[in-house]
Design brief:
Number of strands: 0
Largest sheet: none
Number of helices: 6
Strand content: under 5%
């Protein structure tokens, strides 16, 4: 056997050993035979009886697999889980969020009261805005000496 074939055989053996299954006895038999040269004819004694024995044992000992059905049954099973377990939780979350939204709109931030307060402030600004601007325009300088006058000027600049 060439070196590459031996490496491939070893890699295949390692991969099969990582995934044990019902055919493990056949696997161990096949990999227990080491062929040195691919051209050489080999016939270990009792090969046929050993292979037949392994096949019979494999067929008799391994349990039958229980089929899961087709893709439609798998989808139906997923839908059943979604409808029975997840849907009630999602509905509960939706109900809680809806109740919280209603609570905030009626109690914490009542939209109607906020709109009413906004309209009242705008009305007061229109009604008293002119008066307020005239009051703010009154000259409040009362200092007569130069030092307090400069202090008043400095105060007005920083304000």
């Amino acid at each position: 056997m060439t070196r590459r074939a031996t490496e491939e055989l070893t890699q295949l053996e390692l991969e099969i050993r990582r995934q044990p299954n019902a055919l493990f006895p056949i696997h161990s038999f096949l990999f227990s035979i080491r062929v040195v040269d691919a051209d050489r004819a080999w016939s270990p004694p009792g090969v046929i009886s050993r292979v037949a024995g392994v096949i019979v044992v494999t067929l008799v000992v391994t349990p039958q697999a229980q089929a899961q059905g087709g893709i439609i049954q798998a989808i139906q099973a997923v839908l059943k889980v979604l409808n029975t377990l997840i849907l009630p939780v999602v509905n509960s979350i939706h109900g809680t969020r809806s109740a919280n939204s209603t609570f905030y709109q009626t109690t914490v931030w009542p939209v109607q009261s906020i709109s009413q307060a906004n309209a009242q402030v705008l009305q007061m600004m229109g009604q008293y805005g002119n008066l307020m601007s005239r009051i703010l325009g009154i000259n409040l300088r009362s200092a007569t000496l130069p030092a307090p006058q400069s202090m008043e000027t400095l105060y007005e600049i920083t304000r």
